[in-house]
Amino acid sequence: MMGWLQDIVGFQREIYLAFAEHIKAFAAGGGWSAFLVYLPMGILFGAAHALMPGHGKTILATYLAASPLGLIRGLTVSMVLSFTHVALSVLIVLLALPLVSFSFVNPGRAPMLEGFSRGMLGVIGVWMLYRAFRKRPHRHDHGEGLAVGFMAGLIPCPLTLFVMTFAISRGVPEAGVAFAMVMMLGVALTLSIVAIATILFRKGMIHLIENRTVLLDRTSRAIEAAVGILLMLVALRELVLK
Fold first, then answer.
1. Is the pLDDT of residue 104 over 50?
2. What's the pLDDT score for residue 106?
3. Which of the residues 63, 118, 153, 177 has an alpha carbon 20 to 30 A from that of 226?
4. Torsion of CA 113, 79, 3, 19, to 10 degrees
5. Taking 80 as the threshold, does the pLDDT of residue 39 lie above it?
6. Which residue ranges make up each domain of the chain?
7. DSSP for 6-46?
C-alpha cells in the first residue's frame, strides 16, 4: 500500500520539477511553443494526484451508490467535483490568497472553505436520512447530485495552489492557469473512473434483486440512510472534532 503511494508521490515530484523548469524558461521569454508541448503532462499529473487520499472519491462513490443516477449524470457529478476542486484553487491564488494556510502544520489548506464544504455536506446528509425513512415514494433530483459534487469540490487542491503560486511568483500566471486546467482533466479522468465503477456495481447489485420489490426498496432505503449518516459524520468530524 505504502509502496504505490510513494511511487505516485515520486512521479508527481518529477512532473512538478519539470513544470518548474518550463515555467522558468517561459518567464525568461521562451514563449508558448515549448510550454504547450509539455502541457499534456498535466493530465498525468492530475490523474496521479487524484489517486492520493482525498479529492472526494469516497463521497462521490458513496453518494452514487445510493442514487439512481445513470452513467451520464454520474459522470456529470464527477466533472463538477473536479472542476470545482481545481478551479477554486486557481481563484484563491488569483483573488483570495489570504484564505489559504501556508503553515507547516496545514500547508495548502483553506480552513474556512473546508468548514463550509463539510457543513453543507452534513445538511445534504440530514436530507438524505430524512428522505430514506419517508413513507411516500420519492425521486432523486439531478440537482442534488450536482450540489454534492460542488460541495465536495470546495476543498482546494494543494498542488494547484502550489503550481499557481509558483507561476505567479515568476510573473506568468497565465502559464499556471493553463497547466491547472489541464490538471483538471486528469483529476476528472480518475474521478470519472470511480463514478463509472460505482454505478456499474450498483446496477449489478440491483439486477440481482430486481424481482424482489420489497427487498429492493428496503435495500435502497438502507443504502441512502447509510450515505446520509456518513455525510453527517464527515461534517461532524470536520466541524466539531477538529
1. no
2. 47
3. 153
4. -80
5. yes
6. 2-241
7. HHHHHHHHHHHHHHHHHHHHIIIII-HHHHHHHTTHHHHHH
Element (H, E) at 123: helix 111-132
The answer to whether 42 and 177 have CB atoms below 8 angstroms apart is no
pLDDT category at 165 given cuts 50, 70, 90 is confident
Predicted pLDDT at 105? 41
Burial profile 156-165: b = 16 or more Cβ within 10 angstroms, e = fewer: bbbbbbbbbb
Q: Break the chain down into helix, strand, coil percent, rounded to 5.
A: 80, 0, 20
| Cα–Cα distance, 153 to 83 (Å, whole number) | 8
Contact 128, 66 (CB under 8 A): yes
Residue type at 134?
R
**In which residue are the cell numbers 503511494 written?**
5
Rounded CA separation 220/192 (Å): 23
The CA radius of gyration of the chain, in Å to the nearest whole number, is 20
- Cβ-based neighbour number of residue 208 at 10 Å: 10
Q: For 141, phi and psi rounded to 5 degrees?
A: -85, 130
Question: What mean pLDDT is predicted for residues 54-73?
Answer: 84
| Model confidence band, residue 221 (pLDDT cutoffs 50, 70, 90) | confident
